[in-house]
Design brief:
Elements: E1 2-3, E2 6-15, E3 35-44, E4 47-52, H1 54-58, E5 61-62, E6 68-71, E7 76-79, E8 81-83, H2 97-102, H3 107-112, H4 117-126, H5 129-145, E9 148-154, H6 161-177, E10 181-189, H7 201-219, E11 224-227, H8 236-249, E12 252-257, H9 265-271, E13 276-279, H10 285-294, E14 297-300, H11 302-307, H12 316-321, E15 326-328, H13 342-351, H14 357-363, H15 366-371, E16 389-392, H16 397-402, E17 409-414, E18 417-420
Parallel strand pairs: 1-5, 2-6, 2-7, 8-9, 9-10, 10-11, 11-12, 12-13, 13-14, 14-15
Antiparallel strand pairs: 2-3, 3-4, 7-16, 16-17, 17-18
Helix pairs in contact: 5-6, 6-7, 7-8, 9-10
């Protein structure tokens, strides 16, 4: 019998989010959290060794005077949260755009004026790798303190081979040094740089495909490739060119699609069997059906919709009814969604996507893990999975969505080690 290194006992609700490791939860299953009342969890090394009642856990592991014990009586215990869409490493900030948004200036108009993404591109290009890393560490520390233990991290603010690699190298170094696990995504096709506007857009796509992408692949700096398929950015033809080359090189695929205009990016994601299609505010019924048929995860980013003051959100309920799998993420970035808090995303998911708390929690744990191809390792509290566990000062899982704007995290265990809170 193994000796437990760590025991979490007496959880009022041990929210395991189990049952979705092989495929994401859809339909009614998205409401099933598989909660164990007065639940116990045993950790050996960096892995979960036993989950269940006190009797069940004690039958599988030995508890000695060297075993660390955390009493979670009255608390709610969840898997480490998974943020499956972030733009983590960037230079500068864009608080100046808040007043433009308040005056009703559309996002694409801000972009056309050299603001938006292009403003951050200028700041990121001028920042040193050390400066980008210093800022990113601060953001990661905030995320970890709020229960996020795994996150996707995109490039996309360099838009030159050198600067895209700079961002991805920052992400790689952070992944080696910081407790939060990062999944790197190359997003060289995030915007058309100013120097390529006015008829040279296809030339930039060629650079992304023939120069940037092979260089990133050669250095092993990214697992996924993403593209912003949107009017005024990259059309479906250009997006296809990027993603087909990415697939050829062995990248897994993601796509920003149907955020402002329904161009057909979601259908492209389904055709190419992308891992996820993200945003989806204006996805069509046909797009939803193809998403469901292809098993592509729809990553919904309601914080962005909220921050841009849009009058409609992604059709989460329709997606669930049609059998599509959904996840929720922050879309943390300096412009359209400058929050790295999954707490506020949980509440917005309930209030504006009309999801019940159980659906939200599955969408930020096990389904989010599927959206970054990590469901075999994280996203649920099950035997054989990585011991990423969060203890919330909350009497039940509904309370987490109810108490918006409040960080209820009491302790965070990452790979079996207590990284936030004390014994």
């Amino acid at each position: 019998m193994q000796t437990a290194d760590l025991i979490i006992k007496n959880a009022r609700e041990l929210v395991t989010c189990s049952g979705g490791s092989n495929k994401p939860k859809i339909g009614e299953e998205l409401k099933n959290l598989y909660i164990i009342e007065n639940g116990w969890t045993a950790v050996v090394g960096n892995m979960i060794a036993a989950v269940g009642t006190e009797e069940e856990v004690k039958s599988k592991v030995e508890i000695t005077d060297k075993t660390q014990i955390i009493d979670a009586a009255g608390k709610t215990v969840l898997p480490g949260l998974v943020d499956s869409h972030t733009h983590l490493a960037f230079g500068g900030s864009r608080e100046n755009e808040l007043e433009l948004k308040l005056k009703g200036v559309p996002y694409l108009d801000i972009l056309a004026q050299g603001g938006g993404i292009l403003s951050t591109v200028r700041a990121t290009r001028s920042a040193s790798k050390e400066e980008l890393k210093e800022a990113s560490v601060k953001y990661l520390n905030q995320m970890l303190a709020q229960g996020t233990t795994t996150a996707e991290a995109k490039s996309g603010y360099g838009l030159t081979t050198e600067d895209e690699i700079k961002q991805l190298e920052v992400i790689k170094e952070l992944n080696e040094e910081h407790p939060v696990d990062l999944v790197p995504t190359f997003l060289g096709a995030h915007a058309i740089p100013t120097e390529f506007k006015g008829g040279n857009e296809d030339r930039f796509v060629d650079i992304v495909v023939n120069e940037m992408m092979p260089a990133v692949k050669e250095k092993g700096l990214a697992e996924f490739c993403d593209v912003f398929c949107e009017k005024g950015v990259f059309d479906v033809h250009q997006s296809r060119k990027v993603l087909e080359k990415a697939k050829e090189l062995g990248f897994k695929l993601k796509i920003h699609s149907d955020e402002i205009y329904p161009l057909g990016g979601t259908e492209l994601a389904a055709e190419l069997r992308a891992t996820s299609a993200d945003h989806l505010l204006v996805v069509t019924d046909e797009g939803i059906e193809k998403l469901a048929e292809a098993g592509v995860i729809g990553v919904l980013l309601p914080g962005t919709t909220f921050n841009l003051r849009e009058d409609h959100y992604a059709p989460a309920r329709k997606m669930i009814e049609k059998g599509a799998a959904i996840a929720l993420a922050t879309d943390f970035n300096p412009g359209s969604c400058p929050t790295n808090s999954m707490d506020i995303i949980m509440t917005i998911g309930c209030l504006y996507l009309r999801l019940v708390p159980a659906e939200v929690i599955n969408a930020i744990t096990i389904n989010a893990a599927h959206a970054i191809d990590r469901a075999h390792l994280v996203g649920s509290i099950e035997e054989g999975k990585q011991a990423d566990i969060v203890i919330f000062d909350a009497p039940n899982h509904q309370y987490l969505c109810y108490r918006f704007g409040t960080n209820l995290v009491e302790k965070v265990i990452k790979k079996g080690k207590l990284v936030i809170g004390g014994f």
